[in-house]
Amino acid sequence: MGALLDICDLRVRFGTAEAVRGVSLSVDEGEALGLVGESGSGKSVTALATMGLLAASARAEGRILWRGGKEVDLLRLSAEGMRRVRGREIGMIFQEPMTALNPVMTIGRQVAECALAHNPSLTGREAKNKAITALESVAILQAASRYGDYPHQFSGGQRQRILIAMALVNRPRLLIADEPTTALDVTVQAQILALLAGLQREYGLAMLFISHDLAVVGKVASRVAVMRAGEVVEMGPRESLLAQPRHEYTRGLLAAVPTLRSDRNQPLAMVGRPE
After folding, report:
1. Strands (E) located in the chain
2. According to the model, what pLDDT value does residue 263 have?
3. What is d(CA 246, CA 260) in angstroms, rounded to the nearest whole number?
4. In the chain, which end has fewer C-beta atoms inside a 10 angstrom radius, N or C?
5. Whole-prediction pTM value?
């Protein structure tokens, strides 16, 4: 049986600039794959190409095979076909919850709209109940009474939980999490990572977890792909990749992470740039 998601030789150009250069990776049913690299390495562009959310100026080539049911190439789906997959079969958590959420719409209505978009036969009450259940699943306390609250009434960690509820309300088979903990402090970050790991186990989710932080990826992913300058330079099981990285770029990323044993009088290791 093939992978649930199979990205084959993906290339994405913006004008003459090639942001993604021949990326190939796959995510199996129930697997968590970490995609790691510095800012500008092409991680988010790869995710946006998968979701059919690239800017109109972008040109994508290659294949993105989705095997949620009948095998389809997401790059060749019609806009209507992509809308049926996006949100229902593949969910996505975006980087910054305060900009991803609509500030003038209650959080309950935003989650309910995600349910209604793919289940138009739902009544208003049914959509509300589905939204409340999703909010409860991500540990929003008193979800029913907070259904009518607005994003600014929640903390950063709570807003991220609301985005997760929106992504999971339709129980997709694959979740793409694009830097979901970047704007959070360390304690809340750990809570969100634990929540995602728990939801993955509970729902049998496949997950593509994107981050610039190898330590964070190591907590949620069973397999890791490292991107540099639009290319995947190394991929392998989490334990072996973190313990014995083969590529100099991966070694540089690991060396750039400060620890309690780091000499504070020395600069952090520089990660090499492509010429």
Report:
1. 5-14, 17-27, 32-36, 58-66, 72-73, 90-93, 174-178, 206-211, 223-228, 231-237
2. 65
3. 25
4. C
5. 0.89
Q: Give CA–CA dist 90/259, Å, rounded.
A: 36
How many helices, marked H, and strands, marked E, lie in the chain? 11, 10
Burial class (CB in 10 A: 0-12, 13-18, 19+), 104: exposed
Contact between residue 72 and residue 66 where contact means Cβ atoms under 8 Å apart? yes
CA distances from 175 to 12, 53, 132, 233, 251 (A): 22, 15, 20, 23, 28
Helix (H, G, I), strand (E, B) or coil at 209: strand
Which residue(s) pair with 235 in the sheet? Answer: 225
Weakest-pLDDT range from 94-98, 141-145, 178-182: 94-98
CA-closest candidate to residue 92, choices 211, 179, 8, 201: 179
| pLDDT digit string, tens, across residues 222-243 | 999 999 999 999 999 999 999 9
Residue 141 has pLDDT above 50, yes or no: yes
Q: Per-residue b/e over 13-39, b at no fewer than 16 CB within 10 Å?
A: eeeeebbbbebebbbbbebbbbbbbbe
How many residues appear in the chain? Answer: 275
